[in-house]
Amino acid sequence: MRIMSSVAHKIKEVLKIAFTTTNASDIGIMYITLGIISLIIGSVEATVMRTQLTFNNIGPTTYYDALTLHGIFMIFFVVMPLSAGLANYLVPRMIGAHDLYWPKINALSFWILVPAVTLTAISPLVGVVNAGWYMYAPLSVDLQVNSGIGMDVIEIALIIAGISSTLTGINFILTITRLKKVPYFKMPLFVWAFFSTAILLMIALPPLTAGLAMAFLERNWGFQFFNAHAGGNPLLWQNVFWFFGHPEVYILMLPAMGLIGEILPRSVGRQIYGYKALALSSFAIAFLSAMGVWMHHMFTSIFNFWADAVASAITMAIAIPSGVKVVNWTATFYQGKLRVTGYSILTIGFIALFLVGGITGVLFPLIPLDYDLNGTYAVVGHFHYMVFAIIVAFLAALLYYFPYFTGKMYDMELSKSGAIMTVAGAFVIATGMFVEGVLGMPRRYAWVPSMIYYPFQILIDVGGVIMGIGLVLIFGNLLYSWVKGKRVESLDPWGVEVIGLPDFYIKPVALPLTFGRAMDGSIPEHRHGTFLPALLGILMFLPGLGFLYILRFGLLDVGLPMILAFLAVGGYWVYNDYFKELYPSVPSIRPPGGFEMTKMAGSPFSGSSNPLSVTTEGIQKAIQTRTIVLYLIIAEIFLFGGFIGGYLYTINWTPAAQPYLASFHVDWYGLPLAMTIILLSSSIPSHFAYDSLLKGKLKRFKYLGLVTFLMGLTFLSGQMYEFTHIIHFTPQENIVTSFFFTIVWLHGFHVIMGLTLWAFTLLRARRIIPYEASTAASYYWHFVDGIWVIVFTMLYLQLPFYHPFTPGQISFFGI
Amino acid sequence: MRKAVSPTFTAIIAIVVAIVIVGAAVYTYQQFLMYSSKTSAAITTTSTTPKHTLPYNPTNKTVFITLVTLSSGPTFNFNGTDFGAMVIYVPAGWNLYITYVNQQSLPHNLNLVANDTPTPNSANIADDGKILLTIGATTSDYQSSGLMSGQSASELYSDIPAGIYWLCCGIAGHAESGMWVVLVASPNVTTPYVVIS
Amino acid sequence: MTRLSIEVITMIGAALILAVLGGIAFHDLIMIDTGGYFPHNEKPEVIRVIAKQYVWEFIYPNGTVSYDKVVIQAGKPYIFNLTSADVIHAMYIVQLGYKLEAIPGYYYPLYIIVNKPGVYNIYCAEFCGPGHYTMIGELIVVNSTAG
């Protein structure tokens, strides 16, 4: 009885912490848990695939469902959460921060993944998802093959997962740059790695959202982005997707490389060789990966020498910083003494898998070789070397940090056996795949086209069994030891502190560093938390699903309440954090002890204690907010970039779109011109409003802010009139009209967000001086105006400099 | 608290894994070579060149016939042909070394039949003639069991008398669905060859 | 050897190897994608290829339509003008190690000249639906007849 109730009590305690914590260490643990659960789901999908390929007894549609989900789960819901989780757990401890810059947004980022994983897991039950993880159009938007709402639900899941990742990226950039207590070139290598990853998260996920939105609109509202019969272009999807897709694989790989930079030197007892080169090469790789490399996934789908040349050259260039890393890791073994442990075997396994995988990868930018190997198991083999390397690095991290996390030790020999089997199995699988592909076996085949490939499928099965047993050994060992393992006596379980390689800046005062503990392992006096991020995160599927119901099924009375419910919860959170405190008579969700909880976004500093005149600290806060708004604007620029870049690609390089472009006409004089003048001039009161606030002229600030707001509102009203009374074409006619509506409405949505920011600022201004909010509102407003300049000149005025190229016949050297 | 696992365990695991991997690699290579030779034989016999000489050993007067049931094309096929489109000509009195491979997951077998009807039209091939040889099954279970998924078997039939025969599948109904080729043993044939029409 | 030079050696060495390999690759790429291997005096025959779910449709210059099989003569130059009728496919001729994607709205040329007669396998190499793995064709190269 007593034991049962104590277990029940423990579970209640854990759930309470889970749903209300905003502590990075706890959130990290939750991310890792989610990642491991997704690993099980992804492995089940892999088993379905292996069964079909061995026995030909399951059938193609189910096989291809499993194939799509295997890729999506492993990439988006295993590796990304595991790396975000390890980052949350390790980075603050390594740099001396007690939490991330935005703890509540951090919790929100985690909870968004819960509906994302759920939606993806149920997708095959509500439709056919034969699309593959990169969901090429027009197959993915083909409602005949991919019927039902399975694909749509996956699109919604990946859009919200992308929002989670972008917020995480910005959060970590702010944390590392503003909260670190160590100088840059004394930061641990994992922090460097995740820093560069965070920048990629900020810029690479928005274009994915753009592409997914296009696919969603085409599936559910008849837009024509990828339909060649209406001027659409399947290559549009490929370009937008791979612009995300290539940085994505570095988002997957960089944190793993960073972990090796931590575990390797501590396994051989010496400083890592070439610290600076390793730190900077992470940035070099991240930078190069975002420039022109993405087209190396498209060598067989484009027929253009210049695109080929740029993509191929920069891809080969990325091999160079990667090579430097391998050399430096290997050099670290020299003059060190290797302690053979489970995690050191996994570390060596990582270097080997990365090296071999990298060598196989070098073949692909040599385009004549790519003409042979693309679309075959050679590609599958190459990337399985890489993803197995990543998984092996994460397993090494789990083994290495386990004693900190649980305060217990596991069986070392069992961990070594598990490590050996995992690495060996991974090698067998990836090598079998690569050799098979070189011999000609195409990828995404439910059964071999010729029996000469069948023995390799069996070899992959053998590798899979070995790797599976290895994983079971590792996880089983860890789970058993968590409960029954020997307690670790010292606070330095691997003895690294004594040799001058401490693991953390925030040294533990007690182990375990488990769920609910503070950063240093002590039990916190007050557990301050809020359920609002969890609530909003879990409900994040509502807007997408609402739009699905409205657009596909015409059920406005189902979809609209969903969207409104989501907005209501979001609005309540904003009200709770920013307005309740302005009216102290109203009871609020506040812990006792007068502890000032951080807000949704932003520091606890809530305006000045003196609402009548500005203070220097207030002005400082405003200045500090500028960079933050800039990061958000950068992410938005890449979102717009996906759509605007897609439009430019269409008008310049899509032969099928040319007739529709020639016949496209929209009146720009009259209402649109008037509204443009109003919107662009609203930047003037916006600028002077902010200027007035910084100078202490608060009444003028409020007045000019209100003018800005009203001018923006006029613009929106003008647009609504224009679209209901003046514009006579529909978005579903052809690709040009589809882009027109999408880009203008995307901008309109951002005008609404800008107006919301101004309304928020002005409402706060009734009681306090809104230093940070006014910075956000005015900077964001300038961004909205800037984007309109591009949209108006490009779509309404159709200025010729957007269309310098004439797509004619496909000629290899044409531009 | 259980006892720690000894280092011998790890060593044994490493050795066992190494043996398994090397064995699997060798097996894979061997199987690959086997399938490659089968497939290339199949490809040459499905080419559109009308007359193709078969491999033979004149010293011991043995013709080597390899028939493969492919997993693409018509279901009831030998080397992609069906309904007797393939005709094999051998010198009368020679020995036949027949190898049969089935690449499909559906079971098939191969029988040499001295037929007494022009084309198979019974579910049981024994009703259409005399079964001289069964490959890939036994004389009692040829109607239901056979080879599948890449399995193969070979048999020797000595001194084939002059005449016209079938090489056909014995599984009930398969021969009459088209799974047969014609074998002609004639004194007028000096080197064995095959014709596909 | 100072510490810096090992990294510098790696970078320079890698760059050199990649530059050489890249140079060879670019030269070969231009030859492949402009018909540089074709004999100069012969005009290549154009065979249209339309990839569909889940069959290859070949249309000869004289209008004959053939499904899944195409017959060409050894030693003669051909251009396969490749497109798709529905979703993206890819025509992969295994033994020639050559493929391009078949994309609706685009017509891509494959410059083909095969010297050795035989049967070559054509596999679809871009996922096109549940029948993707059944889209298997044959390129049959026969001895050339007239000179």
UniProtKB/TrEMBL annotation, chain A:
PROSITE patterns: COX1, COX1_CUB, COX3. Its main location: membrane. Keywords: Electron transport, Heme, Iron, Membrane, Metal-binding, Respiratory chain, Transmembrane, Transmembrane helix, Transport. The keyword Transmembrane helix applies. One of its GO terms (biological process) is aerobic respiration. Residues 10-495 form the Cytochrome oxidase subunit I profile domain. Residues 629-800 form the Heme-copper oxidase subunit III family profile domain. GO terms for molecular function: cytochrome-c oxidase activity; heme binding. GO terms for cellular component: membrane. The keyword NADP does not apply. It holds the Pfam family COX3. The chain crosses the membrane at residues 29-49, 69-91, 112-136, 156-177, 189-217, 240-261, 273-295, 340-363, 383-402, 414-434, 454-480, 531-552, 558-575, 628-649, 669-689, 701-719, 739-760, 780-799. It is a multi-pass membrane protein. It is found in: Membrane. Belongs to the heme-copper respiratory oxidase family. This is Cytochrome aa3-600 menaquinol oxidase subunit 3. It comes from Sulfurisphaera ohwakuensis. The lineage of its organism: Archaea, Thermoproteota, Thermoprotei, Sulfolobales, Sulfolobaceae.
Automatic annotation (TrEMBL), chain B:
SUPFAM superfamilies: Cupredoxins. It comes from the Archaea. Keywords: Membrane, Metal-binding, Transmembrane, Transmembrane helix. Signal peptide: none annotated. The chain crosses the membrane at residues 6-29. Residues 2-49 form the Sulfocyanin N-terminal domain. One of its GO terms (molecular function) is copper ion binding. Residues 51-196 form the Sulfocyanin-like C-terminal domain. NCBIfam families: sulfo_cyanin (TIGR03094). This is Sulfocyanin. It comes from Sulfurisphaera ohwakuensis. The lineage of its organism: Archaea, Thermoproteota, Thermoprotei, Sulfolobales, Sulfolobaceae.
TrEMBL record, chain C:
One of its GO terms (molecular function) is copper ion binding. One of its GO terms (cellular component) is membrane. The chain crosses the membrane at residues 6-26. InterPro entries: CcO_II, CcO_II-like_C, Copper_CuA, Cupredoxin. Its main location: membrane. GO terms for biological process: ATP synthesis coupled electron transport. It comes from the Archaea. The keyword Repressor does not apply. Pfam families: COX2 (PF00116). Keywords: Copper, Electron transport, Membrane, Metal-binding, Transmembrane, Transmembrane helix, Transport. Residues 42-147 form the Cytochrome oxidase subunit II copper A binding domain. It is found in: Membrane. Belongs to the cytochrome c oxidase subunit 2 family. PANTHER family: CYTOCHROME C OXIDASE SUBUNIT 2, CYTOCHROME C OXIDASE, SUBUNIT II. This is Cytochrome aa3-600 menaquinol oxidase subunit 2. It comes from Sulfurisphaera ohwakuensis. The lineage of its organism: Archaea, Thermoproteota, Thermoprotei, Sulfolobales, Sulfolobaceae.
